[in-house]
Amino acid sequence: MITLTINEKDITLEKPVTVLEAARKAGIKIPTLCHHEALKPFGGCRLCIVEVERMPRLQTACTLLAADGMVVKTESDTISKVRRGILEFLLINHPLDCPYCDKAGECELQDLVNKYGPTTGRFKEEKRKVPESHKDQIFTRNMERCVVCTRCVRMCSDVQGASAISIIGRGSHSKMEPFSTESFKCEYCGNCLTVCPVGAILSRLYIHSFRPWQIDKEVETLCSYCGVGCSLVAQVRDDSIKRVIPKIGLGLNKGLLCSRGRFGYEYINSAERLKMPLVRKNGELKESTWSEALSIVAEKMLEIKNTHGGPAIAGLASPRCSNEDNYVFQKFMRLACGTNNIDSISRTGFAAAQKYFEDLLGQGITANIIEGLRNSETILVLGGDPSAINPVLGLAIREAARRGAKITVLGNAKGLERFKTFQVVPSVFKEADVLEALLTEIYNTRGLRNENPALDRGIRTLCEKAAAKSDMQEVRDLRNILLGSASTAVVLGMDLLQRSDGHKALFAVAGLIYLLEARLYLLSEKPNEQGVIDTGCAPDLLPGGRPLGIHEFRRKFEAAWDGVIPEKEGLTLLEIINDASEKRIKALYIMGENPVFNLPDKPFVRGALKSLDFIVVQDIFLTETAELADVVLPALGWTERTGTYTNLERRIQLQHKAVETPSGMEDWKIISEISSKMGYRMNYSDSKDVMAEIAEVSPLYRDLTYQEISKGNCLWPYNGEPLRGEISEAPAAVNITKEYKDDFYLAVEKPLFHSGTLSRRAPALLKIYPEPALKVGMETAKKLELKDGDRVQFFTQYGSKEAFVSTDESIKDNRVYYSNNFKNNGVLHLMSFNMDNVTKAPGLEGCEVRIKKI
Amino acid sequence: MEKILLKNIDNPNSSDIDEYIKAGGYRNLSKALSMQPKDILEEVKKSGLKGRGGAGFPTGMKWSFAIADPNLPKYLLCNADEGEPGTFKDRPILEKNPHLLIEGMVISGYVLGSENGYIYLRGEYPHAKEILNKALKQAYEKNYLGDNILGKGIKFHLTVYQGAGAYICGEETALIESIEGKKGQPRNKPPFPVNVGAWNKPTIVNNVETLANLPYIVEVGGEAYSKTGSKDCSGPKLFSVSGCVNNPGVFELPMGTSLKDIIYKYAGGIRGGKALKAVIPGGLSTPVLPADSIDCAMDFVSLPKAGSMLGSGAVIVMDESVCMVKVTHRALKFFEHESCGKCVPCREGTEWLRKILERIEEGQGREGDIELLSDIAGNVAGKTFCPLGDGAAGVVTGMLKHFKGEFEEKIRKV
Amino acid sequence: MFNDSVLNEIEGIKAKYPDRRSALLPSLYIAQREFGWLSHEAMQYVAKTLNLPEAEVRGTSSFYAMFKHQPIGRHLIQLCTNVSCMILGAERLADMLVQKYGLQPNSTSPDGRFSLVIMECIGACGTAPAMLVNTDFHDNLTEKRIEEILEGYK
Ligand SMILES: Cc1cc2nc3c(=O)[nH]c(=O)nc-3n(C[C@H](O)[C@H](O)[C@H](O)COP(=O)(O)O)c2cc1C
Ligand code: SF4
Ligand code: FES
Asked: CB under 8 Å to C102, separation ≥6 — which residues?
């Protein structure tokens, strides 16, 4: 307990904090400039100077630790004079171009001068001249306005970990610059913008387009890009999003954002947005009216249901849509259409992995909070780069590294290059072998846990058989790291399971987290992959993760819904596509998804869709899939409607409506209208109403209200109980004896700056990353005599493509990466797939690639 | 006085280990290793040795802070940055008597329980770097450094780290940043380096001259040592004398030798029979003294009373022909150039002061400039992150205090 | 990129410190020795060798006056003009270098023979004025002596 006096006010502190924090807690304002709550104390600007009794010099409150008995004065004539002097120093070289500067109105220097500053200038000499730099695509840099508080640099290196900028020179010549001096070539998180107190770094997205005070409203909402679910603030003027900013302290991201979240919002204003329903007439999609389009859908679906039965219908829900949308969707499918053929693109990764782990280890096994990563002693990263897929989760890993955690990586992970402490790069198709060897090593040292008979049996069988395999030193080193760690987290990316024997790797991972008592995190590329499952958009699960196969549950939901749920489990994504191609499925209803582009083997998927009698697509853009539809229904997008999302740690959060749009309808609303027309009435007045029903029927979201969610901290299971059902037998591993012989192997790049349909319509992200390149490792480049910018043609057995080469030191093996995020320029169509019969995820096939310089 | 720190340096081979041993070198190391570290520390405390880097902090006290935690590896850093303008006193030790420093550091390492020492050598001393590296090699060969020093199971390794032209790296926390491979910007204190220093471990930073005193203290004992020099400030001291004197150079004299004697007796008086005008007694960062104040003992206690500081003991002598405006301008150019840029008053203040002084010197002075200079200096002094800014402000204030007339004249001549 | 012997040299330096980052200044010196000055590319090599962020390498490098971020002449003259040297005439010497050799401070003579840097104190105040040419000290300078000395650097 520390008691000190500030301005004659006694303040008692629980734990030692700085005088500045102590004062702020007591409501006493001390001016600051270099200090920022997201950063460590710096003590450079000297504005926070205070007088402390018995200390000879003036002290800076931001760096001085409060001590028992301290007597502090934060205002006096001396102090005011000092502050005035400092502000005068800051102004001598400042351009005073406030009328022109975008920061005016939210400029800390302006506010400080207003309050404490000199009124006249005594500086008559020439000011420093540094031309403003517009050489970056996103940032303007004005080093005349810079006050060298170094907040941007500290944010970039100490928090973001990108270390892309630094102060160049020293003393009065100090200026902030990126390495190249021109373009930042950084991670474009824009977190430097958050902390710059003046107009020294500004975003070009809104340059000179509005003044901070000309905002009609600010809406706290969620990012629409990935499964982390960062909070942000959308600033609106004239019903259009002017800027997206984070708020320090807000949300699980605590004010940090990534490039997609901060600069990717402009897609919402894209001219390509669908405005009116489209109906195929004489082979062509033509604009139509809502009533016509909805009637056609209802009639056609009914007709197919009546002629071929419910199971001839399938639906794809969407991890981009809200819980409300997805809940209504599955209800519509089950009760109006009479089918359990409901799945989503998540089956290619997240949903498949989660099902596998939950079957083995119990429901809720992946419900671990991101914040907890920071305090892990060891983090094992597998199957992808967290810093690109879930950037803000990646920051937690980097923070753990800074705190001394061991970051071990299996495979390539660009964003952890400077943070990893250990890396094993298995050769292509050998990931599962390495993981099994690791599991065996751990089993041999630590033995079984005897808590989960099925899993224990599975591990024993595997490890006894595999005993001879672990002759790799790296595996033993990794084992030692893991065994020496008291708190381990496993972060799993989906690349690991996109194999026809992907389940083998998953089994080894399950074994590892079980034996090591590690926490599991599944990387999630879309914002609501968890919500899709939770709301029952799966062929085998009802809302709340209740197995459809259990009669009791089905009966409960039937009672609540007043309808009949088909008894038979439905088909998964790839099975639906397959059955469509074989004409067993006749109608497909797709909400917010683009399987033609996002699944491998495009000719096959396209063919399958073309053989359908009827396709409905709800979306905000005319995607490659929508182009094939019979009816296209324009939905509403991010900031245009309200709804809840469940992130990868199973936090339920609210995305808020911020603007009015003349066209489009909420996804759940479109569906409920069609449902009613088909004879199963749905009567929701708004999304809140839908949530009220979810809270009533879903045991996981019990009693959940929007009001409750707004408070934050709604973590799954919210007031409900997860289902710790019987743990089933470990599914038998299917051995696929596949030899990989080729030199190079094509893989799908998961870049930081893009994530498909949305990002490719976000101009800023396109400026940062305009065109995909073939990313090759240094070894590959050397072998093929390639250098950056060379043009190559690359071939798989399914086709070929031309691209520029870009070398990347973080690729340590013979994989070459190409992104699948650009319109008409994907890469999945050069691959095929073979379904993993255990996980039902697609095992990518035909990725052997030849590369020819042209 | 018998030379202790500069003993034997007239021997052209003084830097060679054999010559050093011949003159009795490394005997004190053997003696020290046969003593208990805490006993040596007692002697150091008794000696009253105060740091020769400028601040005059009692060395024994600093060491006992670091020793408090026996479990952590401690680093011993020798501050050989010698950047204070006018100072060139460490250079003869480094170039002519490197083994004295090495011997002092091994003894210090033994006392502190430190196994690793680094000599932070300023980049501008390439010659010293070669000599030091050669001396280290010899010392390793003769087992005065290494894993088993003199077969006593004592371990101490020493490495030379070359600075790269930044005065601020003489400040101990900036030095630590620099040796960690960063910009030399001072760190916040507390924690002090003795608690959290280089690579986050307790670290002792001592000046070259300070460490070079150690063998002698071991030899004669703290008590005897404390008898040299003046009251409260014991021991021999190196004074660098430069500027308008007949016989500039480094003089090893007892602490407390009078400034007047240093100038007239040892440095041979003023060149060309001119009159003395002013002296900067302790390196450029210490306030100037006018000619009539030189009757003053050169130590950490007396000079502050006379309105200046001992600093590094670098005496810059200026005769009547030297223009004080010019000196002040040049000094501020130095401080502006060397300001690390971390804190606002120093970064902006030194630039502004320099600009005004430049103007005045070029004959563009304006009425009110003197008040402005003094006000700006006041806004800098005491507000900066580290003492560099104070030094800059002190120079201006000191000059205006004693030589205001010269500034006025310069401005009036417009 | 650095050749193997340089990489070995850097490895040896790294081994002397508890953290690889401490090898940064020594490695920058080495890069400067190898390439004459620290181009962006040279700094990239250093960053890569030490696995440090490029921007931090450049930021740190630019803090120190003795790292050269522009090509320099064959011989580097570092003339001190700080107070002790100044009062004994260092400024005259600087003027003379401009007039006689076309050497403005921070520039290179047109023939590429010399570059001039005006230094803060180089610790030779007792024998002022003084300069360093490459790594050689020269002191008690006069205009005439400078001419003689520079003759020795072709
Ligand atoms: C701006 C500044 C520059 C300094 N330069 C030096 C220097 O060049 N050499 C030195 O030994 N101490 C220098 N010091 C003092 C050191 O910070 C530190 O006090 C000293 O190295 C401690 O050694 P000592 O106790 O042996 O004196 C400087 C201090 C400041 C504030
Ligand atoms: S006073 Fe401030 S800017 Fe000047 S050197 Fe010290 S910390 Fe750096
Ligand atoms: S806020 Fe304390 S020094 Fe800047």
From this structure: C109, C110
Collapsing DSSP to helix, strand or coil, B256 comes out as: coil
| Within-domain flag for C69 | no
Give a yes or no: residue C47 inside a domain.
yes
Q: Determine the distance in angstroms separating the CA of C26 from the nearest CA of chain B, rounded to an integer.
A: 7
Distance CA(A847)–CA(A210), nearest Å, equals 49
Q: CA–CA separation, A452 vs A360, rounded Å?
A: 9
**ipTM score of complex:** 0.95
Neighbours of chain C (3+ CB pairs under 8 A): A, B
Chain B residue numbers touching C119 (CB-CB < 8 A): 124
pLDDT digits (tens, 9 = 90+) for A757-795: 889 999 999 999 999 999 999 999 999 999 999 999 999
* Residue among C18, C22, C84 whose CB faces B316 most closely: C84
Q: Do C90 and C146 sit in the same domain of this protein? A: yes
Cα B81 to ligand 1 centre (Å): 8
> Is the pLDDT reported for residue A660 higher than 90?
yes
Residues A187, A753: Cα–Cα separation, whole Å: 8
Give the pLDDT score at B293. 95
Q: Measured between alpha carbons, how far is B182 from C18 in angstroms, rounded to an integer?
A: 14
User: Residue A468's pLDDT band (boundaries 50, 70, 90)?
Assistant: low
Give me the pLDDT at residue A472, please. 84
Decide if C62 and A169 are in contact by the 8 Å CB cutoff.
yes
Residues 6+ apart with CB under 8 A from A7: A28, A72, A73, A74, A75
Touching check for A240 and chain C: CB below 8 Å? Answer: no
| Fold of the domain spanning A744-853 | Barwin-like endoglucanases (2.40.40)
> What is the model's pLDDT at position A737?
67
Residues C144, C105 within the same domain? yes
Which superfamily, per CATH, for A350-522? Dimethylsulfoxide Reductase, domain 2 (3.40.228.10)
Residue ranges making up the domain that contains C126: 75-151
Around ligand 1, the residues with Cβ closer than 6 Å are B 51-55, 57, 59, 79, 81-84, 168, 170-172, 205-207, 210, 386-388
d(CA A548, CA A567): 8
Domains of chain B: 17-226 (3.40.50.11540), 236-319 (3.10.20.600), 324-412 (1.20.1440.230)
Architecture of the domain defined by A2-75: Roll (3.10)
In this structure, is residue C115 part of a structural domain? Answer: yes
Q: Are residues C22 and C54 in the same domain?
A: yes
Q: pTM score > 0.90 for this model?
A: yes
**CATH code where residue C45 lies:** 1.10.10.1590
pLDDT for B72: 78
